[in-house]
Each structure stands twice: as C-alpha cells, then as structure tokens.
Amino acid sequence: MSYIVGFGEIMLRLSSIDNERLFQSLKLNATFGGVEANICVLASILGLNSRYITMLPDNAIGHKVEELLLSHKVDTSAIAWGGKRLGIYFVDKGNNYRTSNIIYDREHSSISEASAKDFDWDKVFDNASYFHVSGVTPALTQSAADLTLYAVKEAKKRNIKVSCDINHRKKLWKYGKKIEEIMPEIVKYSDIVFANEYDAIKILGVESDINVDSNISEEDYKIIMDKLISKYSLEIVITTRREIINSNHNNISALLYNNKNLYKSKKYNITNIVDRIGTGDSFAAGILSGLNMFKDYQYILEFATAAFCIKHTIPGDWNLTTKEEVISLMESYEKLDVKR
C-alpha cells in the first residue's frame, strides 16, 4: 500500500462571491487550499493513498483543516501541530477581461516557522512512492526553504521518487532570497519536475540562446528540456500550456518529455471558467496518480490534462471529480453528451 505524499502549506481561502469584487459584499466564501493539499485530495478521490504533511496551529481552525482532509480520506497522521496561525489568502475573482487578483496574509504561519525536528520523518515517508513539493513553501521564509530541502534529501535517502513543481509565485519571495537561489538545490534531489522553458533557463540555470520570452517551437522546447534533464538527472519533465483569451475563456494542453520522446496532450477549449485556482495542482495530481495507475506516458498525460480541464468547472481549490469522470472526458472530448 504505497502513498503519494505532499509537503507544504495549506491556507484559509476567502474569496468574493459570484462576480463581485472582493469587499463589495459583506460576505466571503471560506474554504481551504494549498498546492500539495490540493494534490493529495484529488489523488485520494482518484483512488490512490495520499498523505499530507504540514504544520497546523493547534486550534479550531487547524483542526477543521484536518477534519476536511480526513473527509477525503487523506492521511493526516504525520501532520505536526504548533506555531502561531494558519495563513490566509484572499481571492478577488476576475470575470471576462477583469483578471483575478490574490492577496496573501501568511506571515508567521505555522509551516513558515517550522523546522525538521518538528516532524517524524519515518512516519512521513512510511510506504511512500512519490514525495511532492513545490516552489511555494520555499518562497515563504529561509526556514521553510531549509525545511523543504531537508525533506527532499530525506526522501532520496529512502529511495522515494521526488516530484517538484517550480510554481513561481513572485509575490511571495520577500525574505531576501530569489527563487533561482533556492530551487536548483531542491531540484537536484528530484526525479520529476513540472517546469516550462522559462523556468528551465531563468530559474534552474539551463544555458541556452533560445528566447523564452515568447512562444518557442517544439524542437527548441526539446533542446531546452534535454539540457534540463541532463543537468539534474531527471526522469521526466512536464509542462502545461495555457492560452488566455480572457478570464472566462482559456485553451489548455500539456507536454511530457522523457529525454527520448515528446508527448503532447489534446487541446481543450474551455469557456465559462468557474475557478482557475488549483487547476495546475489537479494536473500534477493527475500525473502522479497516473504514474501509479498506468504504464503508458501518453495515456498518463491525457489523464492528467483531462483532470486539469475538469477543475476549471469546480469552485474552490479542490477538484472534486472522479477517476471515471476523468477517463470519460479524455476518451470522449468533442463528443460530449448527457449520460443517461
């Protein structure tokens, strides 16, 4: 019985209602979310065993987080308890040509001040198959970056595959370090990386004369990713593609490269987007779950991209879809009808 294990921060999410501006109403929608928690929830719903690792404040809010994770059968047994508070983020939800905006209130959150001694690492990695981290938690504080690096080193010592999503959040890197000073060392211990060509060159130090500030060809993409895989001894690199028409209308697809073959997903034309937040996490969950369930890279990529697509239709951070729904979409896209 193997586990997908995610490590990072979960927050209280407060968002505007319907198409209102953030404080236009006296009411806000309250939910919880965070990159790795979002991944663990979907992996569990898809039928995998998942375990979420974080530090939560020992108060009613922290225990509500655990209660909701447990309701989706996510293992919370290795969560550490302590610290001052749960981080909060506010979502001013966009519509049409008005973009969404996020305001963070996460200073002095529990996980941002946690250290390696707060966790039982044997319990964290018990029967783990994949350990997933992102560039979000290392962006909070130096101690959070150190903790993330410690965690991936522990995973590698135990021969557990490490998955890392670069996930650059420019608003978060405020403690004196830049993302390109921190993430390369974490990626050094990774097997699977979610990154695009910009991340590879600007953050992970791949040397190339290719201009990544605009669209690039598939051949240039392969050249860059070959160098990234070689530099960090990676197994696969995965990239999502998003063409933004407006806040309600996006075209999405994805690429997977394993240093031999480039796999390309179907392209989904998504209109009437309900919520974009958590869509990339759904994609990552689809990849990690797919690697546990399937053998064929093309099938895994299509599965993950369908999960990525479905999340755009669901409010909140968590993708409350099923394996059957994901497979149905990936096999029937462009032939959609009511199931009777």
TrEMBL record:
The keyword rRNA-binding does not apply. Gene3D superfamilies: 3.40.1190.20. It holds the Pfam family PfkB. Keywords: Kinase, Transferase. Residues 1-307 form the Carbohydrate kinase PfkB domain. InterPro entries: Carb_kinase_PfkB-like (IPR052700), PfkB_dom (IPR011611), Ribokinase-like (IPR029056). GO terms for molecular function: kinase activity. Belongs to the carbohydrate kinase PfkB family. This is Sugar kinase. The lineage of its organism: Bacteria, Pseudomonadati, Spirochaetota, Spirochaetia, Brachyspirales.
